[in-house]
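Module 6 notes. Inverse folding takes a fixed backbone as the condition and produces residue identities as the prediction. Think of it as a translation problem where the source language is geometry and the target language is the twenty amino acids. Below is one complete input and output pair. Work through it position by position during the lab.
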C-alpha cells in the first residue's frame, strides 16, 4: 500500500516516513500544504497522514479541497490542537481519524491499519486466502502455518491483492500502489513478482485474467485453477519476462 505524509516538521516527517517504510508501505512525503494537496489530488494513495498546521496552505483547506474533488482516500489528521471543537471541525471536513501531538508511532501505525481495513471492508489485521495467511500488524506471511519469507515488494504486492480479494486488479493499478513516486516503475517487474510469489507460496492463489490483470479469490471462493503459461505469455513465467530491477 502507498501512503502520503504531509508534515512540515522535518524531523517528524522523516520519522513518520521511516516508520511507515519499515512497516512495509511505499511512502511519499510533502513539507507544505500546496505540495501535499497536489500529490493527493494527482496520485492514488491508499491513505494520507495530514498535519493541520502547514505552511502555504493549511491542512484543513487541503482536506476540504480533496473531498470537494471526490478524493476519497482515508485521511488521518495530525495536529498540536487538542480542543474537541478542532476535532469536530476536522472530522466534519472529511477526516477519517484524528491524533493529537505528541503521539507514539505505534498508535499511528495501528490507526492507519484500521483505516486501510475499513476502506477495504475488512474487520481484522489477518488476511486469509486458502492456505495463505497474512498479518498486516506483524507483516508475517504463512502457508499452512509455515512462515514464508518475502521481499518488501513481494509483501506489498501480496498484501494489496489480499486486501482487495475478489476484485480484478490491473497491472497499472498495482504499480501505482506498490511504488512511491521516485521509483522507476516498470510493469514488467509485476509479472516477475507474481511468478516469485507463486513459487514461494507453493500455491497458486493468484489468478491471471488475460488482458485484465490479476485476482485472488474472496473468502469462501474455491482456489482458481493454475494458469497455463502457454495460453498467456505474460501470466507468471519468469523466463518470458526481463529480469526485475534489484530491490532496495
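Target side of the pair, the amino acids:
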Amino acid at each position: 500500500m502507498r501512503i502520503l505524509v504531509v508534515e512540515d516538521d522535518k524531523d517528524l516527517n522523516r520519522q513518520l516516513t521511516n516508520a511507515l517504510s519499515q512497516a512495509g508501505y511505499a511512502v511519499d512525503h510533502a513539507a507544505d500544504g500546496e505540495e501535499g494537496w497536489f500529490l493527493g489530488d494527482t496520485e492514488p494513495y491508499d491513505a494520507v497522514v495530514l498535519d493541520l498546521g502547514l505552511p502555504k496552505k493549511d491542512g484543513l483547506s487541503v482536506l476540504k479541497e480533496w473531498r470537494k474533488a471526490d478524493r476519497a482516500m482515508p485521511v488521518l489528521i495530525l495536529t498540536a490542537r487538542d480542543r474537541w471543537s478542532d476535532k469536530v471541525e476536522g472530522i466534519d471536513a472529511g477526516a477519517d481519524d484524528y491524533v493529537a501531538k505528541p503521539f507514539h508511532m505505534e498508535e499511528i501505525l495501528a490507526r492507519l491499519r484500521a483505516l486501510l481495513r475499513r476502506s477495504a471492508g475488512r474487520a481484522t489485521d489477518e488476511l486469509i486466502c486458502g492456505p495463505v495467511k497474512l498479518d498486516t500488524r506483524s507483516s508475517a506471511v504463512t502457508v499452512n502455518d509455515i512462515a514464508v519469507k518475502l521481499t518488501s515488494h513481494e509483501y506489498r504486492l501480496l498484501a494489496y491483492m489480499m486486501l482487495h480479494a475478489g476484485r480484478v486488479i490491473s497491472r497499472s493499478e498495482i504499480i501505482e500502489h506498490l511504488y512511491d513516486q521516485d521509483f522507476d516503475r516498470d510493469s514488467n517487474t509485476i509479472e516477475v513478482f507474481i511468478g516469485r510469489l507463486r513459487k514461494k507460496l507453493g500455491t497458486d492463489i493468484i489468478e491471471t485474467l488475460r488482458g485484465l490483470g490479476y485476482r485472488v479469490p474472496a473468502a469462501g471462493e474455491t482456489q482458481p485453477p493454475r494458469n497455463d503459461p502457454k495460453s498467456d505469455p505474460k501470466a507468471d513465467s519468469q523466463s518470458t519476462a526481463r529480469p526485475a530491477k534489484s530491490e532496495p
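Reference fact for the lab report: The chain has two domains: 2-119, 126-240.
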